[in-house]
Amino acid sequence: MKVSSRSADLLGRLGLMLIVYLVFALHLPSYYSPAGVAALLDSAVLSGLVALGVALTMIAGEMDLSVGSLAALAGILAVKLFPIGVFPSIIVVVLVCAAIGALQGWLIHRIGINSMIFTVGTLIAFRGIALLVSGEKTQLVPLEDIAATDILIGKFGIFSVLSLALFAAAALIFAFTRWTLWGREIFAIGGGRSESRAAGVPIRRPIMIAFALSAALAGLAGALLSLKAGSASPLSYDSLLLEAVAACLIGGISLKGGKGSIVGVLIGLFCIRFLVTGIAALGAPFWAQSLATGLLLIIVIVAEAIFAAAAGRFRLAMRRPAPIIKVPA
């Protein structure tokens, strides 16, 4: 059976993820115990939800750098809205964040400004709003009501409510990008704006949708984790963006846009989580976790460049006409 280049790419990344997992599983029994697997899944929820959203903006040829600050703001709002109920507060926060993201996308398209520059500004602005709304203090769920958040720590075998939310979000985003017109438009504009415009593909709508979903997923992550912990700090999640982007790049999302898959994002996410969690479990200092993640990302990027160059040379060789051999009379 013929394997497409896209499938081969995903299989290669999956193989890398399994190698990272097995290296630590051989030394850490917790890596294959039910409780250990459940902890690994839970550790991926925050960066996983954010990575799914950031991936959409990267596929569209843009970048949302504001997700960490927005997640912190979402956590503050979720705790403040807690009196209306756990799930109602989460829904309201997600809708508010989606509207904020859609506005960001509209402004980026309308003004014609680079999204990285624009979202650096909103990153700072959202952090300021979080500090303003919280009064520069950590917000706490009232102690007498903390039992209401127990619904977020429920377990279903190795899965928790939060890890199920991650996989449900991934499944929905996968279906959206694979089988809907609006999802395919995100890939189209990332692959080439001029070509998409010439083909009649709208530019504003997919940009707005990509940023709305990115903000909504960041808001969902911030709300879920803050309510589960029973507290929210306006200065939290400052390093969240780095792991999310690293997961996207390791998973095959292209910085040039138009390339990547949601399955790849999950593979990149768990590559990092298996690596970081394993190093921490072995007692290594925090700097070793960051160093290992950076080295893994560099290895993947260099390997991609080498394979791309080799594939280019192979295609060029295949296009060359065969030499004409003259037979003497």
From TrEMBL:
Molecular-function annotations in GO: transmembrane transporter activity
Pfam family, one: BPD_transp_2
Spans through the membrane: 12-32, 38-60, 90-108, 115-133, 153-176, 207-227, 239-255, 262-284, 290-311
Localisation: Cell membrane
Keywords: Cell membrane, Membrane, Transmembrane, Transmembrane helix
Cellular component GO terms held in the UniProt record: plasma membrane
The keyword Transit peptide is annotated on this UniProt entry: no
Keyword Membrane (UniProt): yes
Annotated membrane topology: Multi-pass membrane protein
Top-level lineage group: Bacteria
Protein name per Swiss-Prot or TrEMBL: Ribose transport system permease protein
